[in-house]
Design goal:
With 143 residues, this protein is mostly helical. Helices cover 54% and strands 0% of the residues. It is elongated. GO terms for molecular function: ammonium channel activity.
Amino acid sequence: MDESLSQAHRNWWLVQFADGPLAQAIDDPVGVIPVHFIAGCFGMLSAGIFARIDEFNDEVTRGQNGLLYGGGFSLLGKQLLAILAISAWSAFAILVLMVSLQKSPLGLRLTKYEELIGADLREHGLHGVGVNQYLIENKLTTE
């Protein structure tokens, strides 16, 4: 099997596993965590596992092989450190952003009523599937 197809197949199974029962408790309706975080981490770790020295461009792995090609844990450790650093920075940046949004007049969440009728109607004035069945007695406001 072609190596790129094999990699794509592994990534597909990884995303399916990450979106399974373990992820059901997380509020992630569009699948951001399995697609961007889990697959991104796997892609970065794959370089530390599967990389080979590129004889034409030394800048790719800087003369290091991955774990499966006799490079030891050096490149894999660097990739893991990069994942931890990026995750820490992202968590900090998101925390600052979410706390700022929560304290702003905009807020972070919709009210229960707005959730029931749908964010499309509340945020954009558009109705989605099934919204025309609701009886809306009061005009929606940001209050």
